TrEMBL record:
Phylogenetic classification of the source organism: Bacteria, Pseudomonadati, Bacteroidota, Bacteroidia, Bacteroidales
Name the record gives this protein: Methionine--tRNA ligase
InterPro entries named among the record's database cross-references: aa-tRNA-synth_I_CS (IPR001412), Anticodon_Met (IPR041872), Met-tRNA-synth_bsu_C (IPR004495), Met-tRNA_ligase_1 (IPR023458), Met-tRNA_synth (IPR014758), Methionyl/Leucyl_tRNA_Synth (IPR015413), MetRS_core (IPR033911), MetRS_Zn (IPR029038)
Residue ranges crossing the lipid bilayer per the database entry: none
Annotated PROSITE patterns: AA_TRNA_LIGASE_I (PS00178), TRBD (PS50886)
Protein localization: Cytoplasm
Function: Is required not only for elongation of protein synthesis but also for the initiation of all mRNA translation through initiator tRNA(fMet) aminoacylation.
Cofactors that this protein relies on: Zn(2+)
SUBUNIT field: Homodimer.
Gene assigned in the entry: metG
Domain annotation TRNA-binding: ranges: 578-680
Coiled coil: none
UniProt keyword list: Aminoacyl-tRNA synthetase, ATP-binding, Cytoplasm, Ligase, Metal-binding, Nucleotide-binding, Protein biosynthesis, RNA-binding, tRNA-binding, Zinc
Biological-process GO terms, alphabetical: methionyl-tRNA aminoacylation
Length: 680
């Protein structure tokens, strides 16, 4: 039998304060968490939504070093940006704090000390890379080298960003320190470990037997880890940025970020509710739900529960709805490559369109497998669904009511069979949406809400009240009453998904609030109730707006290609005598023209110091003919003539350099020389 809880604590993965939030984070964690919390609040349930920034760890120190600022400067900047972006986007946290707060430092230290005093850790000495020039141990991210799998340069000690493989620093070929560039050496260091193997028995039962209802991706990943056998995991790190390990002999060591970050959920709750926070974390009648991305499954389902169990007084999570990854235009979202749609930039580029992005990310949510965000799909869903279905139905119902009844809700007369069938169709919507939201199927739940608008559109199209207005106004009144009740239901059904649009719609309906309990009712708007002026709920997004976003991404792709450019290997060595056989000369371009039916070719007339010669070159896509007339170029003068299908003969080859992006640049001289001059 399903357990009934008195309250629900909802956490969403703490975003890393090393950069802004992007659509992958939103689709994976924050939009589904917000939908769920808004739904519980609408049902008048007791719920707390906890968020905050994760502000410790190596990537922050790397960015600080790179920019010549302190780690605190970095986290202050991004914590503020992330917090403000979430607020503007409508992610409705009850608290959004940070792991650099005093409350968090105290609670995390206390948590460690409790486990330490209970003998829950083991101490181990191991060998780790050490930078002799910088005089410090190197965290995994401070070690770079060649990936042993794809052989890309610049792979990190914990992961290769090129092929995505998880690594250990010792896997890298030719490792070097990211701090000094020197080759690191192995040195002994002591750390504290949480012996996960000791917890394997109860974890196996708790997950594999007691929580078979968890999403397949979560259950499967946990089973895989458990089947491989759990290993002790370090909870401390040699670093100077973070929470100092609060025991003697731990100078220069901090709590490992994976250990301190999830405690942030608890410390943020304590910051919000200093007197009652324990109720939300220790009372068995509290349900704990973690919303996370798939890269955090193991931490939230195995590691954090082991920490909580070892401490002894905390509840364990009841569910961990984790999404897969969202890709962008067919490529993996990457912060380091700037391949992302950043939330703060979206809010600037699309003011007032928070709900459009919320809708698209939910409709395309990677709930069971990785999914892809494209700007064309974003535009299509806005124009063909939000505008053409939802917005269109609302607008027609309100505008027709304004036209025929001065914006007053008309009386509902006798119902036809078709009216009854229509009302029956949406009577079950509440139960259907609830059933889906209760099992975290947000994509299907939103689709169910949109079906209400489809029913409404079909109803108006089939009954055609604008035609009946000439002969049967009582019938028009009934049709519009039913249509308006449907509109009011839409305002409730979409409240968790599209809060800004629901608020706008309630204002148009002249209704302050609706209760979730009212969803499915047909008497939400009383006869004679005065509506406000109709406005467009959504607006069409034009091609040029979308093209601007596509162009922004294409520019990023070019920048990335330029940044990662590596010259091709040098060809096999040749003798000087072989090189001397090539006669490379300078020629002046006298004429240049395109070749009919040969779009890649340009025909040159070149002065070579002896006579004029014709050279045909495949550079038409890179230069306009007039750009090259009068220019001096290098060409190979002693190549055998080459005949083309159209009868053209080329008497040489113009030398060009191929750039990383495939573009060609004709070689030229720094100062002018006589045509026919030889290249030595």
């Amino acid at each position: 039998m399903e357990k009934k809880f008195k309250r629900t604590t909802v956490t969403s993965a703490l975003p890393y304060a090393n950069g802004p939030v992007h659509i992958g984070h939103l689709a994976g964690v924050y939009v589904p968490a917000d939908i769920y919390v808004r739904y519980l609040r609408l049902k008048k349930e007791d719920v707390l939504f906890i968020g905050g920034s994760d502000e410790h760890g190596v990537p922050i120190t790397i960015r600080a070093k790179k920019e010549g600022i302190t780690p605190q400067d970095v986290v202050d900047r991004y914590h503020t940006l992330i917090k403000d972006s979430f607020k503007e986007f409508g992610i409705s946290f009850d608290v959004y704090s940070r792991t650099s707060s005093k409350t968090h430092h105290e609670l995390a230290s206390e948590f460690f000390k409790t486990l330490y005093d209970k003998g829950e850790f083991i101490e181990k000495t191991s060998e780790q890379y050490y930078d002799e020039e910088a005089h410090q141990f190197l965290a995994d991210r401070y070690i770079t080298g060649e990936c042993p799998h794809c052989h890309a340069e610049g792979a990190y000690g914990d992961q290769c960003e090129k092929c995505g493989t998880s690594l250990s620093p010792t896997d890298l070929i030719n490792p070097k320190s990211a701090i000094s560039g020197s080759k690191p050496v192995m040195r002994e260091t002591k750390h504290w470990y949480l012996p996960l193997d000791k917890h394997e028995g109860w974890l196996r039962k708790w997950i594999l037997e007691d929580h078979k209802e968890w999403r397949p991706n979560v259950y499967g990943q946990c089973k895989s880890w458990l089947d491989m056998g759990l290993q002790p995991r370090a909870v401390s790190r040699d670093l100077d940025w973070g929470i100092p390990v609060p025991v003697e002999g731990a100078e220069g060591k901090v709590l490992y970020v994976w250990f301190d970050a999830p405690i942030g959920y608890i410390s943020n709750t304590k910051e919000l509710l200093p007197d009652s926070w324990e109720t939300w974390w220790k009372d068995p009648e509290t349900r704990l739900i973690h919303f996370i991305g798939k890269d955090n499954i193991v931490f939230h389902c195995i590691v954090f529960p082991a920490m909580l169990k070892a401490e002894g007084s905390y509840i364990l999570p009841d569910n961990v709805p984790s999404n897969e990854f969202l890709n962008l235009e067919g490529d993996k979202i990457s912060t380091s490559r700037n391949w992302a749609v950043w939330l703060h930039e979206y809010l600037q580029d699309f003011p007032g369109k928070q709900d459009v992005l919320r809708y698209v990310l939910t409709a395309n949510a990677p709930e069971t497998k990785d999914n892809d965000f494209t700007w064309k799909d974003f535009q299509a869903r806005n124009n063909n669904e939000l505008v053409a279905v939802y917005g269109n139905f609302v607008n027609r119902a309100l505008v027709l009511t304004q036209k025929y009844f001065n914006g007053c809700v008309p009386a509902c007369g006798e119902l036809t069979e078709y009216d009854k069938d229509t009302l029956k169709e949406f009577a079950d919507v509440k139960a259907e949406v609830e059933k889906l939201l209760n099992v975290f199927k947000f994509r299907d739940a939103q689709k169910e809400a949109m079906n209400l608008a489809r029913i409404g559109n079909k109803y108006l199209a089939d009954t055609e009240p604008w035609k009946l207005a000439k002969t049967d106004m009582p019938r028009v009144a009934t049709i519009l009453n039913i249509a308006l009740q449907l509109v009011a239901n839409l305002a409730i059904a979409f409240e968790p998904f599209l809060p800004f649009s629901s608020e706008k719609l309630r204002k148009m309906l002249n209704m302050d609030t609706f209760e979730w309990e009212q969803l499915g009712r047909t008497d939400l708007l009383a006869e004679g109730h005065q509506l406000n002026k109709a406005e467009l709920l959504f607006e069409k997004i034009e091609d040029e707006t979308i093209q601007a976003q596509v162009d922004k991404l294409l520019a990023t792709k070019k920048e990335n290609e330029a940044a990662s450019y590596k010259a091709n290997p040098i060809k096999p060595t040749i003798s000087f005598e072989e090189f001397e056989k090539l006669d490379i000369r300078v020629g002046t371009v006298l004429e240049c023209e395109t070749v009919p039916k040969m779009k890649k070719l340009l025909k040159f007339k070149i002065a070579d110091g002896l006579e004029n010669r014709t050279i045909v070159s495949g550079i038409a896509q890179h230069y306009a003919p007039e750009e090259l007339v009068g220019k001096q170029v290098l060409f190979i003068a002693n190549l055998a003539p080459r005949q083309f299908k159209n009868g053209l003969v080329s008497e040489g080859m113009i030398l060009s350099a191929e750039n990383f992006d495939g573009s060609l640049a004709v070689t030229s001289l720094l100062k002018e020389v006589k045509p026919g001059s030889e290249v030595k």
